[in-house]
Amino acid sequence: xxxxxxxxxxxGAFLSGGVDSSxxxxxxxxxxxxxxxxxxxxxxxLSWARRVAEHLGVDHHDRIIRPSVVGLFHDLxxxxxxxxxxxxxxxTYLVSRLARERVTVVLSGDGGDELFGxxxxxxxxxxxxxxxxxxGLVRAGMVAPIVSALRPRAAKKGKINKAKRFVEGLxxxxxxxxxxxxxxxxxxxxxxxxxxxxxAAMKTPVERHILDLFRRAGARDPLNRSLYVDLKSYLxxxxxxxxxxxxxxxxxxxxxxxxxxxxxxxxxxxxxxFKLGAGQTKTLLKxxxxxxxxxxxxxxxxxxxxxxxxxxxxxxxxxLLEDLLDPxxxxxxxxxxxxxxxxxKSEHLAGHANHSHTLWSLMVFQAWRxxxxxx
Length: 375
Hints:
Blueprint: E1 11-14, H1 19-26, E2 32-38, H2 46-56, E3 59-65, H3 73-80, H4 89-100, E4 105-107, H5 112-116, H6 120-131, H7 136-149, H8 158-170, H9 187-193, H10 196-201, H11 208-216, H12 222-248, E5 253-255, H13 261-267, H14 283-289, H15 295-298, H16 309-312, H17 318-324, H18 327-333, H19 338-349, H20 356-372
Parallel strand pairs: 1-2, 1-4, 2-3, 4-5
Helix pairs in contact: 1-14, 4-12, 7-8, 18-19
């Protein structure tokens, strides 16, 4: 940590009020911290960040994001460079811009989840093993159809939304372990989404990269194998890339103390029972954090750094959705089946299903293609 604090320019930290960033800030001493929140209360964690900041006595700054961020879309596509369908590019860019008003370097809590077991997908994989012990008739004939028929809720998570995601993940290859809950749309949905010409050009199965990483993970315990996979895929291919591009777009340097080599090596020597408990993630890290910040900030449900895009797609983002996923444009390009995309849009806008991840990924790809390929 001392190495991360060396700087000849002003240095601060991102602070969400969660375990990872709070623990980083607690080790900094006097610090300047930055947070972003939302109008939607189910997505707003500013009260937690303020609670931690007050407890630690740091110089804290925060700002509310409103749906007007739609105007940033095309700029962020330019900054992103690659078509990465991650909603959190918006808050990452905006909190970086906020920080750059006062500092040139920030510390980030990225990496803590992948080292110490912070994602709910790890719990879902455990629950799946218990769920599979139910009779097949109960699972396939009762639970799955009932849960699938429920309308998604507008709130970020909640029991109904979590139950729907759990059932959806179970439909994927069990060999993907926890990564099943990172997929949106299984083989059947992908088969319907792409045109025959596009499918004929696809030589590599979507899941191969993850399955290969699980094989390379070696003889670790099940959780540490999953952490290895996330470290080698989700963290480096999505999280770190997104943070680097969005922060550098504001001329801000973002550092990741959790990824110091010595800490990474130590984390993978820690047995899984110290990382994942009965219904609790990051067991060991939370015990450490609770010594430095209020326990209520540590032992609270994980929310994640996201935005209410599923709700915004039917509002401020609707014109952009219709423009980028225009059926005539899709038909001319020949990659995606216009009728299926229209069905996804219709179901989502009517509130019958939450297709925000798929629709957003399509929008990002279309914007990227328009920016870099269509000349």
